[in-house]
Write a structure and sequence with these properties.
The complex is a heterodimer of chains A (237) and B (254). Chain A has 237 residues and is mainly α. Chain A is built from nine helices and no strands. Chain A has one domain. Helix content of chain A is 88%, strand content 0%. The relative contact order of chain B is 0.17. In chain B, 37% of the residues lie in helices and 24% in strands. Classes of the chains: A mainly alpha (237), B alpha/beta (254). The interface between A and B is medium-sized, with 13 and 23 residues.
């Protein structure tokens, strides 16, 4: 029965004009508005990875392998993980704060009284937007991270961009990419679920909104870490 | 039309509603008064099943609503319009979109017809020029009127008002009172109003019920309410400087 109800909602959501409009808005908020911070974080993550591994590999004369080290780290773990943390801190916290404010100002009750399901009206557009946008942003993070590594390789470690890229593409596999994107997709669902739940559970006015926002970020971080480990274990052991 | 039978609700360790029974008749303006924490808003929330009683039954038009399923609940709620204390307008939508929301969600009317109906309600509430504004850009009184326009857009049989005049200046408060009276006269709507404002209650109510510590201490017509011998009611009347004739009492400075 519950499954049937959920399916009804999904159909109502998928074919609703207003839902599509709201989803596009959320895609814009998640994707475009997070680009600046993701750009900086991704570039520097790649640069730090390249510098740390490159300096260590140089001791053995193997600095040419920084391409594979950076690419595999970014695609498998760092890309989805860093993107997840940024989105949890920026978009997830905003979702919790918005829904929390709506809860304490009775807007959620008003929706219920108007027989408008808050899950369909508010949660679904955010869930779809984050689940779709997280893998896209992760690809962007991966590319920038690898580019950042290439810059450090070329300027600090004497590894040409061509050999860096050759090395990177030689060792990173399609499986790494797919597993990384799968993680990003799961992280998107985790962030939305945690943030919306914290928002809906808000009490105690403005203080409660602050608590919900903080809790949404902390819980999302922790769940992302644990689930990230479990997915890696599932696919690589 | 609305009937509470021996309803009890406990929140935490506090008995917010203690075995209360009352009935609201069709076309009545039923006012619930009482001190803060007396259980007024909780009573209102039970009427639309935003809360469930721990014991007792609540019926709307003869149908017990305690355990309604999702669809039945939706049907039951379609009879109601609710004006929340904070107006509860969605902040990212214009006033017009807020008022249009129930029509867009629950009817297949085209946008022209929806906008016609919305503008009609906005005009009824003197909000002709506020349609394109956002809730944050209009005054508290206008927000309440916009909330009321949204509450009546589906032509409900019953409208619930939670503190409709709280936080408003006296002139705007009386205007809201007039609107509530006009709703009954023009649209034949049954109203349940929760308020602290006894002047407002006396002006608009066909019945006034007072709650105190979760119990009903008085339930009478305004005239009988003024004559109540109950000490809590008398003290409540005194606190608002109202004489037995329902007039203002001048405060002595001697």
């Amino acid at each position: 029965m519950f499954m049937l109800l959920e399916a009804t909602w999904f159909v109502q959501f998928a074919f609703g004009k207003r839902s599509r409009h709201e989803t596009v808005t959320q895609l814009f908020i998640t994707g475009i508005k997070s680009l600046a911070v993701i750009t900086v974080v991704a570039l520097f993550t790649g640069m730090i990875l390249a510098l740390q591994t490159g300096l260590e590999l140089r001791r053995y004369g193997q600095e040419v392998y920084i391409g594979s080290a950076v690419a595999v780290s970014m695609i498998r773990e760092m890309g989805p993980f860093m993107t997840g943390l940024i989105i949890a801190a920026s978009v997830g916290s905003a979702i919790a704060a918005q829904l929390g404010t709506m809860t304490v100002s009775e807007e959620i009750s008003a929706l219920e009284v108007m027989s408008i399901n808050p899950n369909r009206f508010l949660v679904m557009p955010r869930l779809v937007a984050l689940a779709l946008m997280m893998p896209v942003l992760t690809v962007y993070t991966n590319i920038l991270g690898i580019v950042g590594g290439a810059v450090v390789g070329a300027t600090q470690l004497g590894v040409s961009v061509t050999s860096y890229m050759d090395n990177a593409t030689q060792f990173a596999t399609n499986k790494d990419l797919y597993v990384g994107l799968f993680k990003a997709f799961i992280f998107g669902i985790i962030i939305t679920t945690v943030s919306c739940h914290q928002g809906f559970m808000t009490t105690e006015g403005a203080v409660g909104v602050g608590k919900a926002t903080r809790s949404s970020v902390i819980i999302s971080f922790l769940v992302i870490l644990v689930v990230g480990y479990m997915v890696t274990r599932l696919f690589y052991i | 039309m609305i009937r509470f039978d021996n309803v009890t609700k406990v929140l935490g360790r506090k008995k917010v509603l203690d075995d209360i029974s009352f009935e609201v008749g069709e076309g009545e303006t039923f006012v619930i008064v009482g001190l803060s924490g007396a259980g007024k808003s909780v009573t209102l929330k039970h009427m639309i099943r935003l809360m469930r009683p721990d014991s007792g039954t609540i019926s709307i038009e003869g149908e017990v609503i305690n355990d309604l399923g999702r669809r039945e609940l939706q049907n039951m709620r379609s009879k109601f319009g609710v004006l929340f204390q904070s107006a509860a307008l969605l902040q990212w939508m214009s006033v017009r979109d807020n008022v249009a929301l129930p029509l867009r969600e629950h009817t297949k009317l085209d946008d022209t017809e929806i906008l016609r109906r919305v503008d009609e309600k906005l005009a009824l509430l003197s909000l002709d020029d506020a349609g394109d504004k956002f809730p944050a850009d209009i005054s508290g009184g206008m927000q309440k009127r916009a909330g009321l326009a949204r509450a009546i857009i589906m032509d409900p049989q019953i409208v619930l008002y939670d503190e409709p005049t709280s936080g408003l200046d006296p002139v705007t408060s009386r205007r809201i009172d007039d609107l509530i009276v006009n709703m009954r006269k023009q649209l034949g709507i049954t109203s349940v109003v929760v308020t602290h404002d006894l002047h407002s209650a006396l002006a608009i109510g066909s019945k006034i019920m007072m709650l105190h510590k979760g119990k009903i201490v008085e339930n009478a017509t305004p005239a009988d309410f003024m004559k109540s011998k109950n000490e809590t009611v008398k003290s409540f009347l005194d606190s608002q400087y109202i004489t037995k004739k329902g007039k203002w009492e001048t405060m002595s400075h001697e």
